[in-house]
Amino acid sequence: YRKHEWDKHGTCAATLEVLNSQKKYFGKAIELYQHIDLNGCLSKAGIKPSSSYYKMTAIKEALEIFYGVTPKIQCLPPEEGEKAQTIGQIEFCFTKELQLVNCTALEGGSNPVQARLKLGTSELSVCDDTLPTYYPSEVQ
């Protein structure tokens, strides 16, 4: 897994001195991950991993208020007979100076440094704002 991440993303990031070795790249990723503290942020907004459902708009709003940027949230669609989608990945984007930036602002060709929080390997898609949303404890 680590080799795949380095080959796919790290070699691009290595053009920046702060990320130009595997040790720096993964070390900085862990540092940013701990700094973001996603579970802590959502918990303060009353959104906790549980069997109850949340509104996707409430989750987005909490993240945008707390971090001041729009992350990219992807979900697993509802399984057959179910009504709720499941958060599968929350992605934060950073400038080359490692400042948080709206992920939506970067979709026109430039490659931001991305911090991915991932669950499983199923097909993820953009979350549907109208569906109830399950926040599983595996998203960290």
UniProtKB/TrEMBL annotation:
GO (cellular component) term, any one: extracellular region
Top-rank lineage group of the source organism: Eukaryota
BP GO terms, sorted: RNA catabolic process
Entry's Gene Ontology molecular function annotations: ribonuclease T2 activity; RNA binding
One Pfam family of this chain: Ribonuclease_T2
UniProt-listed SUPFAM superfamilies: Ribonuclease Rh-like (SSF55895)
Family of the protein in this entry: Belongs to the RNase T2 family.
Protein's UniProt name: RNT2B Ribonuclease
Native organism taxonomy: Eukaryota, Metazoa, Chordata, Craniata, Vertebrata
Gene name per UniProt: Rnaset2b
